[in-house]
Amino acid sequence: EDKVVQSPLSLVVHEGDTVTLNCSYEVTNFRSLLWYKQEKKAPTFLFMLTSSGIEKKSGRLSSILDKKELFSILNITATQTGDSAIYLCAVEANAGNMLTFGGGTRLMVKP
Amino acid sequence: NAGVMQNPRHLVRRRGQEARLRCSPMKGHSHVYWYRQLPEEGLKFMVYLQKENIIDESGMPKERFSAEFPKEGPSILRIQQVVRGDSAAYFCASSPGSWAKLFFGSGTQLSVL
Q: Which residues of B touch A27 (CB under 8 A)?
């Protein structure tokens, strides 16, 4: 059975801090790994990673994938209160592009 | 360009009633996915549909649950004879093709009394 594990479960930081969120996976026939941000509503897409070692960056957020060690990290620098959300990691494996989600990391950024 | 639209946002049902959840994918998207999220848990895949076809329903309970995506109109997730354990947020997502970047709707929060 495909498995995606995120850590930590929750995290409280202050504005300006840098955070690193972790996602490890065990899946058959890995195709891609995705990060989503979920506030009160719909999960919104952040990154899609398919190749090892290539960092994807969007503003203060960046992510990288290690296909040998089967994990990905999501970094957020200079955090802001608007970064408070649940961050979800998902892996696409096998055919049919269904995603297996991890349990999420709940990030709270205090002013 | 409207995103994925789900309705209703909140649905309250008594045990034994039926729940119908609707999802209109983004314009141009022909692939629809339904996920369920329990409190403090990640999203769990239920079913993947294309127009008029169920592609994969391996995550959907065999009994009481059904899904359709007709040629015209929204995708419907139907839960018959709801039980308290069905209470969850149900998210729909769509994509334009068979790749994994999914766009999610805002979800329907189902509460079973």
A: none
Confidence bin at A16 (pLDDT 50/70/90): very high
- Calculate what percentage of chain B has a pLDDT beyond 90: 73
Of B41, B48, B56, the CB nearest to A103: B41
Q: pLDDT tens digits for A42-55?
A: 899 999 999 888 89
- Cα→Cα distances B1→A58, A107, B70, B92, Å: 23, 30, 22, 17
Starting at the earlier edge strand, list the strands of the sheet with A3-7.
A3-7, A19-26, A71-76, A61-66, A56-58
B45, A100: Cβ pair inside 8 Å?
Answer: yes
Q: Which residue of B has its CA nearest to A92?
A: B100
Q: Is B84 on the interface with A (CB under 8 A)?
A: no
Q: Is A83 helix (H, G, I), strand (E, B) or coil?
A: helix
Stretch 67-106 of chain A: residues touching chain B, C-beta under 8 Å: 88, 90, 92, 96-104
Hey, is the C-beta of A13 within 8 angstroms of any chain B C-beta?
no
Task: Give A98 or A9, the one with higher predicted confidence.
Answer: A9
Q: Which residues contact B73 (CB under 8 A, 6 or more apart)?
A: none
Q: What is the Cα–Cα distance from A60 to A48, expressed in whole angstroms?
A: 16
Mean pLDDT, chain B, whole residue set? 92
Structure confidence at residue A90 (pLDDT): 93
